[in-house]
Amino acid sequence: MDQYVIKGGSPLFGEVTIGGAKNSALGILAATTLTEETVTVNNVPNIKDIDYLLLALEEIGAKVDRKDSHTVRINAKGISPLSLDNEYLRKIRGSYYLIGALLGRFKKAQVVLPGGCNIGNRPIDQHIKGFEKLGAKVEIKHGMVMAEAVELRGNHIFLDVVSVGATINIMLAAVLAKGQTIIENVAKEPHVVDVANFLNSMGANIKGAGTDVIRIHGVDKLHGSTYSVIPDQIEAGTFMIAAAATHGDVVIDNVIPKHLEAISAKLVEMGVGVEEKDDAVHVFCRERTGNTHIKTMPYPGFPTDLQPQMTMLLALSMGTSVITESIFEARFKYVDELVRMGASIKVDGNTAVVDGVESLTGATVFASDLRAGAALVIAGLTAEGVTVVENIEYVERGYEGFEEKLTQLGGIIKKMDSEDEKALRKFKMKVS
Ligand code: EPZ
Fold first, then answer.
1. Do 22-228 and 2-18+231-431 fall under one CATH topology?
2. Could you tell me the CATH superfamily of domain 2-18+231-431?
3. Is 285 a catalytic residue?
């Protein structure tokens, strides 16, 4: 197992370039199976979740050609809806998009139930509701989702909860269905819009993505396309918070500032400097931030995927802050790890009350999921002494070259083998 070893106290300075959005690329790559023609996808993040999905596409017969680490060319002409069950798909949440895409293309899909971060019970009832409204019969048997339809016909679907995955998955199943599909109470995240734009670039007829109602007119077939994934809003927000937490000065390049408005507004409220440019944000912070209150909400509200990172920043802010996690039931597991570093945080159900402290101290901490891991890394960059973050495979699933980018900004962080005590001692000697 690998770990990050971090020496705290170095403010982050310089420029960092944001990669393609993980949660958009997963939907887009699954959607390439909806056509027999070749699709080229650019700005794909080079992370493990993408590797796992591409391996699964190859397993069902797609030709996958990684032109370079950020460009994938896929031809899914020869695929068949074999039952898809492998160790990779069981690890990632994004595997559920193969259900909608294969159902949409073949009227049949058999895919292992998705995995994903351990932040709540992660049901897929709304995905299934959508598939059934389109005319599919869906069963869950032996850990697999088995969906089949004689014909898929457009329908009027009202989602009970705002769900990113269900919104995208129902779009994937509906683009080739007969007639019109209206989906209400949909997610409006940038990556939902990106997947809809990609499908339209293949000849789909989708209107309203990014609003509360999406209208889809089914078409007979989709054609090939060349498309570029939008920048990752959550990676960008993570680096914005890291710049503020380390009292640094960082220009975050290749972003869409509009997608970051909720984060920028909160950082400004806390006294952090945020300057928006055309495709970059400049974040700088000289002194201890003030407190604020956060409630995670579907886009355009404050994103749940930045809740751990922001809670970590608030742990060092002046005064008391309250964070309410309204999307997932179990997304405060990392708080115990921050308390181990000296944070003063009390969690009660889906609310955390944070009494800001002057500083944190380095410790060995354990990442419980992708964004929690990122928050613990940022905590280590601010802490006195050395922090070891274990279970970093979570972080590598969603952040490309995380330690390289942080090192380039002046952070002292190194990926090491957890078993190599000697190397750890050597690093600690070198940095202390
Ligand atoms: C996606 O997960 C993202 N993952 C998550 O990012 C992100 O936190 C989440 O959207 C919210 O933005 C991917 O895109 C691969 P949801 P997803 O369906 O689709 C409930 C990361 O760190 N719900 O929007 O699983 C659900 O329990 C990951 O990159 C149902 O009740 O999220 C939750 O409370 C973590 N029934 C709420 O809706 C369903 O059928 C939102 O979930 C589906 C969801």
1. yes
2. Enolpyruvate transferase domain (3.65.10.10)
3. no
* pLDDT tens, residue by residue, 87-143: 778 878 888 999 999 999 999 999 998 877 788 888 999 999 999 999 999 999 998
Distance CA 372, CA 367 (A): 6
Q: Report domain extents, the chain.
A: 2-18+231-431, 22-228
Tokens encoding 372: 């929690």
Residue nearest to atom 28 of ligand 1 (CA): 305
Tell me how far apart the alpha carbons of residues 153 and 265 are, in angstroms, rounded to a whole number. Answer: 43
pTM: 0.97
The two structure tokens encoding residue 144: 């697999």
Ligand 1 interacting residues, C-beta cut-off 6 A: 22-23, 26, 93-94, 117, 120, 122-127, 161, 163-166, 187, 189, 304-305, 327-328, 370-371, 398
What is the architecture, at CATH level 2, of domain 22-228? Alpha-beta prism (3.65)
Catalytic residue among 79, 117, 310, 313: 117
Q: Which tokens sit at 254?
A: 């290749």
Residues 35, 390: Cα–Cα separation, whole Å: 41
Chain segment 139-174, per-residue pLDDT in tens: 999 989 999 999 999 999 999 999 999 999 999 999
What is the identity of the amino acid at 84? L
CA of 307 to the centre of ligand 1 (A): 14
